[in-house]
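Appendix B. Chain record.
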Amino acid sequence: MLDIEFTKPVPPSAGALVLLVAEGAKPAGVWQTVDETTGGAISRAFEAAEFKGGKGKTCTILAPGAGLSRVVAVGLGKEGDISTRSLEEAGGHAAAALTRDAAAAIDAAALTAVQATSVAFGAVLRAYRFDRYRTKEKAEDKPKLTRLTVLTAEPDQARAAWAEQRDVANGVYLTRDLVSEPPNVLHPAELAERCRSLAGLGVDVQVLAPEQLQKLGFGALLGVAQGSVNEPRVVVMRWDGAGGKEKPVAFVGKGVTFDSGGISIKPAAGMEDMKWDMAGAGTVIGLMAALAGRKANVDAVGVVGLVENMPSGAAQRPGDVVRSLSGQTIEVLNTDAEGRLVLADILTYCQQTFDPRAVIDLATLTGAIIIALGHDRAGLFSNNDELAQRLEAAGQATGEKLWRMPLDESYDKQLKSDIADMKNIGGRPAGSITAAQFIQRFVDKRPWAHLDIAGVAWGTKDSPLAAKGATSFGVRLLDRLVAEHYES
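Structure tokens predicted for this chain:
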């Protein structure tokens, strides 16, 4: 992670400098000083590039003088429209432009201390890179930026505010690391071991092994796992930040570490992407790390079901009937609709064990949600209007946007089985909705929301806060939800 420092706004004498420029802003402070020192090079470059501070626009000036390697101007847009989210994205644009410099400074003197930390937060998120398995990368291809100095009039206040932001960034990094790992490394047992590292933050971590799951009656989850040599795990993570005296808020994640589709095998093209079918669990793990890291004043529990879905002589067959932990029976007509089977059991376990005041589950559940919403929003399904509205607001504020989809009994007829309580698929029409209707059958009357993140867990192109790859969608959204509505 980038090393972040906060200092008084003194122009740097070396390295790179980032100027944050609002539309119509005039040179002042560090910007004015550097422009004068370089004989007006900054002003001339802005004029030549027709740079006026438009939101997300950048202008790079190489070797302008005064010992600087480059000056990068990042547009903030209209001053009245500047928000936490836009400042984070400005930091992300800056980091993307600074990969060739080992050290850089960002002039945030015109911002408050908290606003300055938002810029730093965005830069840290965009600077993430998963390079654990690169052994022959050329030096010129490796990003060099390791230290970022944020120039602010209130460095002490910024340092205090940054401590909490840094902990959330650590949670984001953990999620991205997990989702990026190859499936031959991150099988269920290994992912469970990675969860144990949260104990160092004060999280109570319990791992349920296959024999325990069998004894407890996790029939739906075990059915998914039975075709793989990599045995399943269920991990329970508790953070009692409010003293363990309240009903916790619960987060439940699908963790299919690789999804071949099982006997209902997927097409070969693109199957390698199914290493990130555990992104729901990855988000829950990163969120628990963020809450514990910043010492959130909340009692929270995270439950993740970890399985590998593989075809073999022992694999679950289309036509099998399994008995879930809830006692309800499921006719499995498609073994590639496995995530809902995993969620069925871990949702039941979570509710029976912890009696949470609200439950939110996350899963890369359906391709249908990508057809409906593309890659810009996750699908939101909920039985509670207040919870849904809170989630939508948190998503809008963080840029991890949601779109509420319907739940209605009229869809239940698509799940009717001839021989069991239900079947695990409802056909092509309304595929993401019938999947959510299925999951809802394992939720009691408490507030519940289901986030289908299949279209947003992995980015196929760069964005302001994440390079191509794992996005960690949901960590910041849910951390904000907790901070605004569940902390005492």
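Further analysis of this model is presented in Appendix C.
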